[in-house]
């Protein structure tokens, strides 16, 4: 595995406010990472620090295993962290030619990149005639002109209509499928779920979870139960090694599983132990519920 970016105990303070707190994670080549968190959780600050546009307060980061300077490393990074800004009276082609001159990269990739983002047919239209979605796609094409190792996007679908959102997500998936590593910040759980292979969840600048998107669902679910003899049920569950926390609310008992168990085996087990249920439902939290509980929880 090749590490593209390593972030170690990064902290950023703005006066008394800690925007990023002791954050560590690493980005491996070929994956699509989402930094997921509600507004104000420190996503843009984190991206700004690793792109050298925001100074860190403590901690450090290194690109490509630290083998080259940050200045040289950033030449291999494509990033869009602001609203796309091009010359309105110039066409897509003219704007991208200018970008090539500024970045000192050859112009021979322009058409290929416009094709990638679905703008080849509109290459001779002025930027001012583009919709917001097209502007965003042009920005992606522009960020790809130097064939970066990694593409960084901050809230890439903000402000777009549903069709525009869908187009951007498809383009991100296509870029990833061709081997470019991607790091995107988003406050939208479904965006991260749809586009990313890995996720780093932030809340108030702190990491709550990082790992494969699929493994966010590792919980084995929970049972909602009622019994004729409630206290006996609670005692039994409390002593059972397969269960974590037991909650009671309005006579309904919620028991969170620490390992796999079917509803029928629990029912049988309880009956054998003289506990008769009047209500039994097995549920699995959706990713959304988990995200909400991760981000709303513990103040
Ligand atoms: P996100 O991108 O997740 O919405 P940000 O990284 O933009 O979050 O912001 C994290 C926190 O830092 C927020 O509370 C925000 O108000 C604060 N913040 C960001 N930039 C500045 C700044 N230049 N000065 C003071 N506070 C800032
Ligand atoms: Mg932001």
Structure, described:
Helix 4 packs across helix 5 (132-144) and helix 5 runs parallel beside helix 6. This protein folds into 2 domains: 3-215, 3-Layer(aba) Sandwich (Rossmann fold); 222-283, 2-Layer Sandwich (Alpha-Beta Plaits), CATH 3.30.70. The model has no long low-confidence stretch (mean pLDDT 91). The chain is built from 10 helices and 13 strands. The radius of gyration is 24 Å and the shape is elongated. The chain has a 6-stranded mixed beta sheet with strand order 5-6-7-3-8-9, with helices on both faces. The chain has a 4-stranded antiparallel beta sheet with strand order 11-12-10-13, with helices on one face. It has helices at 43-50, 70-73, 92-103, 110-116, 132-144, 162-177, 189-195, 230-239, 263-272, 287-296; strands at 3-14, 17-28, 32-36, 58-63, 77-80, 150-154, 181-186, 198-203, 206-212, 222-227, 243-249, 252-257, 277-283. The chain has 299 residues and is α/β, with parallel strands linked by helices. Adenosine-5'-diphosphate (ADP) is lined by residues 14, 17, 19, 37, 39-45. The site of magnesium ion has 4 residues, from helix 1.
The overall pLDDT average reads 91
Apparent shape:
elongated
- Per DSSP, the total helix count is 10
Number of strands: 13
CATH fold node name of the largest domain: Rossmann fold
Which series of helices and strands comes N to C?
A: EEEHEHEHHHEHEHEEEHEEHEH
Largest sheet: 6 strands, mixed
Going across the major beta sheet, what is the strand order?
5-6-7-3-8-9
CATH superfamily of the largest domain: P-loop containing nucleotide triphosphate hydrolases
CATH structural class of the largest domain: Alpha Beta
First-last Cα distance: 36 Å
GO molecular function: ATP binding; ATP hydrolysis activity
Pfam families: ABC_tran
Protein name: ABC-2 type transport system ATP-binding protein
Family: Belongs to the ABC transporter superfamily.
